[in-house]
């Protein structure tokens, strides 16, 4: 999309802070993120001379070790850390639904035999004292108690006392004021305060609905855990970078506490029953009333921090880089929140590095530590992994939880280097290594302290020669096989600014300008990949791995596409994979953001093992202008949760003249979480 503007709000500093209003770098065509990685890291082909022997990717059906990914809500008690036994070891059943065709409908389209319900939409009451939603009379106080805007990641935890309930944790990534407010309010600075309250997270109790697999909100008065976290909620800062000089501001001389989280994109659930939520494009929240501190020029540049914010400095001076050069260092972290402790202070974990964090998905290592997989969503940026120093303590008691909530404070942060297999066989596979950047006490990057590495993680990774990837987004281990899947969403600069390598092989690819139109060649990787990693010995704590491109996305008619070896005439076209999830049988589900094949975005399912490996089938499409977020499959296999983010976000659309009115409850669109299910009440997908 072209950036939306709110020209009437506020005043513009010398750095033109208003010009970036609501441009959040997810347009489907040209605008696929800024790309400040200027490092001269060698690409993989330059390293091929040293390629090691080709590794064998772990065979199908590899034994699930202690390292199986754990999902807390799969158990009867949310605090329990028992493994995801409901799915482990089950043979992947073939997907049987009739795929949804690409389309441009202003609706959610699910397969024949399925239906969907809206679970929670922008403005719905979360807290008991919140008023009913009134788009024409929005206030900051009302929004602070209502479901936020642009829902993204969806986590779900078993309710501790009610088997028919779940506790949903939903990110609210960003706001789009021209779609949220009538034009008559553009000159009203209150809308900036409302926008701040529409960010963050909603924690919402839901209960089984009338139909098998459906869910609905519990009335706020009847809930214990409902909570809103926003851009003004207090957070603690922990880990080795807490208290560093760069973390201190005029409001916080300790460098250990900060108000708010922003641009919460994806996340993950820990086995001990907390949710991880990730600050992604935090750079876009900071204005500049004058010059920027030259001491931070390199750091700012590497993160795209240019004083082009959203005007928030007009109502809160900490968002002015000129007067508060350090506040921006307090954003860009992975945050841990206990959804069962509504009064607790959540923690920004500096040990997991400062990135444009997409997601954070944990897996227990063979040695009993916790590993967390991390993507940095920017063209040419890196894939990371954190491994804790301390061991995960199983059990549902309070003492175990207290211990486990310290696991992300000490350990080692790694970045990935991918090496091809050295064979010119047209296969995209090879080996890789996790290169240690720092522990909590020792930096391995020359000239950088531990705090330097954690605060300027991108600069540290540049120095050690990590592999520049095509926008690493969500990354998660398959709970059945342990293999790790990463969505590499696209990179229009691949082949030009970023030379191709075996893990990022496409310098050109095919797009469609409109549905049904011809395929047209375009420079770079436009449709993205899904990468499959096999950690050595299937151990999430390993420092080596094998890899291959499981999917080279796009239209099956385009020569460059590849679907895990499955016949290309029997798969759905897929473009721009973004977030991933698994069903209990270990099938991979992929949501997309930025389809360049002429269709609305959607959600896809694909077996990763067996005879149907690579059979990509489209499960649903989202309305016009929306991206598909938050994929989550229920542990009983009956429900697919998605967040429908930014419906109607199309050039020129406004509140009064919307491009979408989904979910068709109002005259304007409302981002919402949905649940999809089979009408006959059977497991989804099968
Ligand atoms: Fe917020 Fe990288 O998607
Ligand atoms: Ca995302
Ligand atoms: Ca995305």
Question: What's the helix and strand layout?
Answer:
Layout: H1 44-47, E1 114-121, H2 140-144, E2 151-158, E3 165-172, H3 177-180, H4 190-198, E4 200-208, E5 215-217, E6 227-229, E7 234-238, E8 257-259, E9 264-269, E10 275-279, H5 297-302, E11 334-337, E12 347-349, E13 357-364, E14 369-376, E15 379-381, E16 383-391, H6 398-404, E17 411-420, E18 429-439, H7 450-455, H8 457-464, E19 469-470, E20 472-477, E21 484-488, E22 508-512, E23 519-523, E24 529-535, E25 544-552, E26 562-563, E27 577-582, E28 588-592, E29 602-606, E30 617-621, E31 627-633, E32 640-645, E33 672-678
Parallel strand pairs: 7-12
Antiparallel strand pairs: 1-33, 2-3, 3-4, 4-5, 4-6, 7-8, 9-10, 10-11, 11-12, 13-14, 14-16, 15-19, 16-17, 17-18, 18-25, 20-21, 21-24, 22-23, 24-25, 25-26, 27-28, 28-29, 29-30, 31-32, 32-33
Bound molecules: MU-OXO-diiron and calcium ion (2 copies).
The site of one calcium ion (CA) has 7 residues, from strand 9 and strand 27.
Describe the structure concisely for a colleague.
By secondary structure, the chain is mainly beta. The model is unreliable at 1-31 and 42-90 (pLDDT under 50).
Descriptors:
binds calcium ion; 7% helix; disordered N terminus; globular; 686 residues; 33 strands; mainly beta
């Amino acid at each position: 999309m072209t950036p939306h503007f709110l020209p009437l709000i506020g005043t513009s500093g010398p750095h033109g802070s208003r010009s970036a209003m609501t441009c959040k770098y997810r347009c489907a065509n040209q605008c696929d993120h800024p790309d400040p990685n200027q490092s001269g890291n060698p690409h993989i082909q330059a390293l091929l001379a040293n390629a090691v022997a080709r590794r064998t990717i772990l065979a199908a059906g590899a034994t699930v070790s202690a390292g199986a990914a754990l999902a807390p809500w799969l158990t009867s008690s949310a605090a329990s850390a028992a493994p995801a036994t409901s799915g482990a070891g089950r043979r992947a059943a073939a997907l049987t639904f009739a795929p949804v065709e690409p389309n441009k409908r202003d609706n959610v389209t699910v397969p024949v035999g399925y239906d969907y319900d809206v679970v929670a939409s922008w403005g719905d009451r979360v807290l008991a004292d919140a008023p009913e939603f009134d788009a024409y009379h929005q206030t900051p106080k009302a929004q602070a108690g209502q479901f936020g805007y642009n829902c993204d990641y969806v986590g779900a935890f078993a309710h501790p006392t009610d088997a028919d309930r779940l506790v949903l944790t939903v990110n609210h990534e960003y706001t789009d004021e021209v779609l949220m407010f009538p034009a008559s309010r553009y000159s009203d600075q209150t809308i900036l305060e409302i926008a701040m309250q529409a960010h963050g997270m909603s924690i919402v109790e839901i209960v089984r609905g009338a139909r098998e697999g459906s869910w609905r909100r519990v009335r706020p008065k009847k809930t214990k855990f409902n909570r809103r976290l926003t851009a003004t909620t207090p957070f603690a800062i922990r880990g080795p970078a807490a208290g560093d000089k760069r973390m201190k501001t005029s409001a916080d001389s300790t460098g250990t506490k900060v108000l708010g989280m922003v641009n919460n994109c994806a996340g993950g659930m820990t086995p001990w029953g907390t949710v991880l939520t990730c600050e992604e494009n935090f750079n876009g929240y900071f204005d500049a009333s004058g010059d920027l501190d030259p001491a931070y020029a390199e750091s700012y540049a590497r993160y795209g921090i240019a004083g082009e914010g959203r005007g928030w400095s007009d109502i809160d001076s900490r968002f002015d880089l000129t007067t508060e050069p350090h506040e921006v260092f307090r954003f860009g972290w992975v945050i841990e929140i206990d959804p069962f402790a509504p009064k607790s202070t959540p923690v920004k974990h500096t040990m997991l590095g400062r990135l444009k964090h997409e997601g954070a998905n944990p897996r227990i290592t063979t040695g009993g530590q916790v590993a967390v997989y991390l993507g940095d969503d920017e063209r040419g940026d890196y894939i990371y992994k954190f491994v804790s120093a301390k061991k995960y303590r199983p059990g549902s008691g309070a003492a175990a939880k207290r211990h486990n909530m310290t696991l992300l404070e000490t350990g080692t942060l790694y970045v990935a280097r991918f090496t091809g297999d050295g064979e010119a066989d047209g296969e995209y596979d090879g080996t890789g290594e996790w290169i240690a950047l720092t522990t909590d006490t020792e930096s391995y990057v020359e000239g950088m302290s531990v705090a330097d590495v954690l605060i300027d993680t991108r600069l540290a990774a540049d120095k050690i020669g990590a592999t520049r990837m095509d926008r690493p987004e969500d990354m998660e281990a398959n709970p059945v096989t342990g293999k790790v899947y990463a969505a590499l969403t696209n990179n229009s600069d691949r082949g030009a600014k970023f030379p191709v390598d075996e893990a990022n092989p496409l310098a050109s690819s095919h797009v469609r300008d409109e549905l049904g139109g011809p395929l047209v060649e375009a420079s770079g990787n436009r449709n993205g990949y899904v990468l499959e990693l096999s950690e050595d010995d299937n151990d999430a704590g390993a420092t080596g791995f094998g890899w291959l491109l499981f999917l080279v996305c796009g239209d099956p008619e385009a020569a460059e596409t590849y679907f895990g070896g499955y016949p290309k005439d029997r798969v759905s076209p897929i473009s721009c994979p973004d977030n991933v999830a698994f069903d209990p049988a270990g099938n991979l589900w992929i949501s997309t953001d930025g389809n360049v094949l002429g269709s609305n975005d959607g959600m896809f399912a694909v077996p990763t093992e067996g005879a149907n490996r690579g059979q990509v089938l489209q499960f649903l499409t989202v309305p016009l202008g929306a991206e598909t977020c938050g994929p989550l499959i229920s542990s009983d296999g009956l429900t697919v949760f998605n967040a429908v983010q930014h419906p109607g976000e199309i050039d020129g659309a406004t509140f009064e003249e919307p491009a979408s009115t989904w979910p068709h409850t109002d005259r304007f669109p409302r981002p919402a979480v949905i649940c999809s299910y089979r009408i006959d009440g059977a497991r989804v997908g099968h």
